[in-house]
Amino acid sequence: MHEEISNKKKNETPPEKEMSFWNHLEELRKHIFRSLAAVLVFSILAFIGKKFIFDVIILAPKDSGFITNRLLCKLGELLSVDALCIGKLSLSIQNINMSGQFMMHLYVSMVAGLIIAAPYVIFEMWRFIMPALHPNEKKHSKGAVAASSLLFICGVLFAYYLILPLTINFLGSYQISPDVPNQIQLNSYISTVVSVTIAVGIVFELPILIYFLTKVGVVTPAFLKKYRKYMFVIVLVLSAIITPPDVFSQILVCIPLIGLYEISIKISQRVYKKREAELAG
Length: 281
Hints:
Elements: H1 2-11, H2 21-48, H3 50-58, H4 67-79, E1 93-94, H5 100-129, H6 135-173, E2 184-185, H7 186-203, H8 206-215, H9 221-226, H10 228-242, H11 247-280
Parallel strand pairs: 1-2
Helix pairs in contact: 2-5, 5-6, 5-7, 6-7, 8-11, 10-11
């Protein structure tokens, strides 16, 4: 009998000790350090690949030969809508600061490193939060990590290939008077490219945000449906600002953003039903 009890004690795994506040900080420091290291590595690679980053990626949307500009021109010809042909604009970018080009090179390299390393950074964030989750939550959160990374990348690509060319065309060709020509500075152009791309990438995280807000009870499907019409108005206003003055360009921008909101409602409905069932049980 004593042998059985001793064997049971040997086989039992000791309970995990709760980490102290300082241990949590130490773990957080490790995850942040690994994330920053990944960003730094990709930033260095982007810095080395200057010609590709600037000539092929950053400066490409301003030229008539950019794929989106060419496709929109062809679409405009088919539909007899001249406003869609934004490929006629070719901006001339200039630098007026002594260290301007070098500083922009550093800045763009860091931003490129952050965008490329974003999936790994999200993964490190999940690894830090994971120990506090229940087994069932851990299983579902793995999918959330992959989904949030994919949504961010899709948002960046959507901004780069559609919203950015339309924005550059509108802002680059807008004039208050023919006597005031547009002379675009390098830092102004790059800040527009970066801000639009990052902002839309974050906006595409809306379904993930709604998932967690619904899970903790902050948002409900009824709330999202109630304010759906206001969301549509906001999307229409934004698309009208950044696109040429024609309905086709506005539709091109509106459809994905409205679709994103509708997907968020569906996700909220599923999470809300599960949450209500768990509370009732």
